[in-house]
Specification:
The protein is α+β, with helices and mostly antiparallel strands and 181 residues long. It has four helices and nine strands, in the order βαββββαβααβββ.
Amino acid sequence: MGIAFGLVVNFGVDEAAAWSARDHVLGSGSFAVGHREVVLHPPQLDWDADVDGVPYLLMSILPIGVGRGLPLDRGHEPVRLSAAELTDLGSQLYGLLREFSGYRAARVGWDPYASVDLAELERECADLLEAGTLPGLVLFESVLTATRGAAFVPFAPWFVWIPYASERASSLTADDDNLAA
């Protein structure tokens, strides 16, 4: 089983917004990260269901080669990025997200899929939402208002977020050799 780094977006049932965002991503080109250009896979748009069984459209935007062990990356050269480079890439993905509309929740990071399940966030992560310890989580302004803490600030018109934190050096980053030092 692989692990993905990317942007995931919950569009609820707004198909028009999801397809518009997908088209925007397809025309977005590559991202300059460090000394290389990082290209995105075509966005994956699928129906998913939250922990209560309520369906929603989920879009995954994954950079080519950045994940580890992903079937989607077979045939592509692995792209090993440092924590600083991943942070830069994540910031650029949030820039792309600022151009979307109609979504309910979004997050960039390593396997951020559970972070956009609104029922799971409300049920399992209310204390984290209140404490503001889910950095990078973006919500539509009327979503989960009863469980959001003061850490949420404006992200884009109609959206709030807990500002994105830097990625940390780990076994998933190119600077993992420096962890023992």
